[in-house]
Amino acid sequence: MLKFILALCAGKCISAAIHILGPILHKNGTHLPGNIALKIDPLFLKHIGRPKTIVAVTGTNGKTTTNNLIIDALEKNGYKVLSNRYGSNVNSGIATALLQGVNLFNRTKYQLGVLEVDERSSLRVYKYVHPDYVVVTNLMRDSLMRNAHPQYIFDIIEQSLPDDCTMILNADDLLSNRLKPDNARVYYGVGQQPGDSATARNLINDVQICPRCHSKLQYHVLRYNSIGRAVCPHCGLTSPEADVCTMDIDYENRLLTMKVGNAPVEFPMISDSTFNIYNETAAVAVLDQLGLSHDKIAQAFSTMKVVRSRYREDKVRGIRILSTMTKGWIAPACSAVFDYVSKLPGEKELILYLEDPTDPIFYSELLAYTYETDFEFLNKDNIQRIIVIGKRARDFYLRMLLAGIPKERLAWTETIEGLKRYLKPKYGVDIHILYDLHQAIHYDQIFTNVKEAIEEAKL
Amino acid sequence: MIRIEILYSETANLYGDNFGIDYLKQSLDEVEIIRTGLTETPRFVNESVDLVYMGPMPESSQELVIDALRPHMEALRRRIDEGKVFLMTGNAFEVFGAYIENEDGTRIPGLELFGGYAKRRMMDRFNGMFLGSLDDADGKELKILGFKSQFTHFYGDTGVNYAFKRLRGKGLNPDAEGEGVRIKNFIGTYLIGPLLVVNPLFTVYILKLCGIKDPHPAFEEAAMDAYNVRVKEFEDPTKSY
Q1: Domain count across chain B
Q2: Is the Cβ pair B222, A208 closer than 8 Å?
Q3: Taking CB atoms and an 8 Å cut-off, how many pairs form between chains A and B?
């Protein structure tokens, strides 16, 4: 116990130091207090005080959005929620959040905790931090070097979770919704919608065979990757019915009609993307479980929006520059951004900077994920030019040629300065910058070059 | 026209490596691509197929693949003897060894096309680069580069040749002199990339094995440009493997 007391004191001191110095150093240090505490006491997560009720939010895509929707709705209704929303979702980040939630006597200041948990960290977190509710948004391909494949992550979560937590699962993901089959469970999903199709649009779908008998599944709805509704023609396995289901999507009035239990309930639509409609439905399912009335949920949602923290829009001499941070290494995430950008109306030029910035220094980056990513979505007539930047630009260029994009529309440059050679700013043509999370440090440099290219163009 | 059969792509489809077959398709004027599912009889059993390909898969699928292929091993051996081309990338080739050993010591019996065994360490993912070589039909050395991202290494006496000579990086296991296995035109390798896309010269080599005269990989100039840059990087002593 002495180790724990030392860890708690050290963690508290470091938290206080970060609180004072963080704004000066521009660091939030959300790993550090937890990291040090775990180093002093490896069982720190076991001993630290915690809220009475804990909701864990996990899954490949959408966990941050879902987590934030749940927390915001609860806070708007007067709940005091312990969370790691401004910090890290691995064990050290969770240790930091719990550490900050207790006083020096290890007594928690919160009744309720909502924690985003990295899937790969499940083994190190759930062993000590017992969740009462676990929301799994989906399981899809992630960084192959770290997360291998979705079945591997499924197995990790399956063996980490306790047998008595309530699972809140995506009815339309036949992989993740099979987690902890004997636990209490609530399914959420999106019902049949106009325009739904059974045709695969993506290169990858990780649930093509029946998880029970291994025959080929038949999808009657396939929205993206493996998200859809399927039936096994051999053994009859079907996607489960959703307990909380978005039945009607009214884009015009921005309303979602959900079946919650047996009653239809209207909620404000927070975002019109399919991904976020799933996230919002998941949030409703959790809030309903926590006992928040439908009216209160709807009221909270009415003032909320999904913050596109990874998006910004600027205008230089009348030309729009739209910047979107894109998660390199994660094929479904890149494909989703490509799909979204390609469907935006109007003429556009695209700048891609997706490689890992450490690549040229330490190794030669594995770009296998680009062959799981739907670059084919970018083969559109209104995308006038795609310029790819970086040491690996040649590889991206080849990938796009293989996606059928005409050579005349493609250009590549190793340096950011080289951009100006290929960018042809024109009125009425938007410039989109898609850059990897790890390239954020270079974003200003890209933006400056784009700005200069516009200013130098004789418009 | 050549015929290419992709085995079990409904599950053996990881790491984008199956795109190598798209690359072959785009490199050829006439090609028939056959996708055989787990519940179907492979076409190579009763028909002439020029290339049989299988890509990386989840570990749980390896058992399904072993069960699916076991009844057809006699036909598979016959096709190898006839000189047909088989290419297995990532962990696909492991199913043809003696067995796969789990961390708890239990064993999954393999198809015993060759000896040796794969050993799983599911909490210890191995990522690395590999540079090797292969002599083509004219005795010219082809540089082969690729990546490894796997939970296994392959140990024991395979009783067959390596697919590639090792120049840098780890081979079949950390102490092995070479990478992959080779029996006539059956090539099994842990390498991914996609292997064929990142190695246009190896793509030419495979197409020649399939009987194509003077093959050219799709977008040859762009592919060779990317390959040449990669080879320099892979040879650079400052790069960590």
Answers
A1: 1
A2: no
A3: 94
